[in-house]
Amino acid sequence: MNAAQSDFQQLRIKLILFKSKVRSAVYGGTPDQEFFSSSGPMGQWFRTIGAVRYSDLPEIGTMSRLYKELVSTANHLISQYRSGKIEEAHEGLKDIDKLAEQLTRLISAVEGRLV
């Protein structure tokens, strides 16, 4: 596995964990506020690996925007859950899945070009 494959595999794993933590939070688990902030693992990846190694790729900007949208959506769903709008929060997980799918497609496209 070359460096690019490893870098993007790390991002995929962080995305899977992100989705899992959102799902847990809207099904009654305690939300990890740090994780859902820009200083969380995915935010760190974009600020370090993404910005340093891949900043010349136009997709990185789009991927970063999708990540920020994921964070915003996750925080909104957690807020809905906390305010008693449980069904709406559960329904909103579809938005998380759509954004994650878009991000995954971009990751695969970039990785495919670099390998």
UniProtKB/TrEMBL annotation:
One MF term in the entry's GO annotations: kinase activity
Keywords assigned by UniProt, alphabetized: Kinase, Transferase
The protein, known as: Histidine kinase
